[in-house]
């Protein structure tokens, strides 16, 4: 539910969070409070936001490991 926030432009993350947060309660509300406190300060959003990033680390590394596996099997 919260993962799509990483793909929003930085200036829209807080608005997106508020939209997702409407009507939450119980454990979900506690999760949202944690995310707001720990991950949504303005200085932290650019650290995890991937909007406009062409190469995301996991995909790039998985491709590299795939190539290494293919080469290792040849010998």
TrEMBL record:
Keywords: Signal. Residues 1-15 form the signal peptide. It comes from the Eukaryota. The keyword Signal applies. The keyword Signal applies. This is Integrase catalytic domain-containing protein.
């Amino acid at each position: 539910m919260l993962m799509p926030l990483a793909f929003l432009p930085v200036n829209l993350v807080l608005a997106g969070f508020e939209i997702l947060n409407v009507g939450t309660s119980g454990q979900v509300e506690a999760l949202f409070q944690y995310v707001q406190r720990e991950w949504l300060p303005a200085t932290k959003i650019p650290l995890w936001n991937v909007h406009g990033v062409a190469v995301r680390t996991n995909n790039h590394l998985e491709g590299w490991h795939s190539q290494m596996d293919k080469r290792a099997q040849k010998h």
